[in-house]
Batch of 2 targets.
Target 1
Amino acid sequence: MTAAYKSADLAFKEIQDAERSGADISTLIEKFNAALGLIEQANTKNHSTCFSYDSCLDGAVSILNSISRDSAFLKDEANRLSGYNNVTVMGIYLPSMAFFSL
């Protein structure tokens, strides 16, 4: 159980980092909630979408690990888009403003 909780803590921090970078984290939140649902099923022994305690936790850890990978991709994408926006502002808008002000 502690591995699942550690994975959940790490995934939550990764989601926060992705959000701070400006990424759309809606899919990460959905995955996180699904993983928490599996942990809850393991704890309550109400296995509706998994077969046993171990399979519930294994599924949750798998989802939580995928969140870490996905958040890294989303952070990189958000940073790249932010860089493009900075280039656009610095390379097009500022020179245009300087030209028109002359």
Note: The chain has a mean pLDDT of 83.
Target 2
Amino acid sequence: MNDLFDEFPSVEAAYHEAANHSHNIAHWKPSHDVVFEAARRVGFSALRRRDTGAGKRGFAKQYKEVCKAYLRGERFKRDVVAPRGATGREKLTD
């Protein structure tokens, strides 16, 4: 998607970034908020299991909608996801 300032990654680059990081979103630092929001709307598990064609089409549709919303001034809050095993609790027994 081309915006006035080329602010967003291309659909192809955004899809590959989201698909490559969908297995470990706790450690993912997205290149742009719109990439993460589009992946969230599609669903991270869907990105992991869909065939490439359907996954790309579904992501592209959401990505374009998210980019338009961002250009209108909407901003997206990213929920903090704790890495597995990082519950913050002490182990009670061995």
Note: The chain has a mean pLDDT of 82.
